[in-house]
Amino acid sequence: MKPQLIAAAEIDRVETWSKYNRDMCTSCMSTCCTMPVEVRIVDLIRIGLVDEFERGEPPKNIAKRLQKDGMIERFNAKSGIFTLTRMSNNDCMYLDRKTRLCTIYEKRPDTCRNHPRVGPRPGYCAWRPKTQA
Fold first, then answer.
1. Average pLDDT, integer, range 56-80
2. InterPro entries recorded for this chain (predicted)?
């Protein structure tokens, strides 16, 4: 059996997104987990990438360390937002490739907890069905 490619979210084409309903999550290939994940210091602490004692350090120093470790792609000093690194196929680094489930679900960032209430198109999702042709 030939493996299927997973469609990444079409971030730039939010008009293609579907109105969100709760049942979508059980029939999706975790499409939202292919979008950039923006996090703040509190999320990094919850995930375990930053120690509680580092909270008082300048965020740019934390960002420098996390970029060096390959954990974040970028840091916006003006907003204080870090963007987690994604895998080569655009999956979140915490998404299991086989099960398509989050490996840190209980500790997931606020961005993930609040999707799709917040994001590029609130109330809509870049949903892709599990059975793609």
1. 97
2. Puta_zinc/iron-chelating_dom (IPR005358)
Question: Average pLDDT of 86-113?
Answer: 95
Neighbouring CB atoms inside 10 A of 23's CB total 8
81 three-class SS: strand
Distance CA 44, CA 27 (A): 29
**d(C-alpha 72, C-alpha 33), whole Å:** 15
At 31 the pLDDT is 87
| Ranges of each domain in the chain | 1-35+89-133, 38-85
Q: Give the position of tokens 């939202």.
A: 32
**Which residues are within 8 A (CB) of 74 and not within 5 positions of it... i.e. 6 or more apart?**
67, 82, 83
- The count of residues in the chain is 133
User: In the beta sheet, which residues pair with residue 28?
Assistant: 129
Q: What is the pLDDT of residue 133?
A: 43
**What does each C-alpha distance from 59 to 40, 41, 56, 81 come to in angstroms?**
10, 8, 8, 9
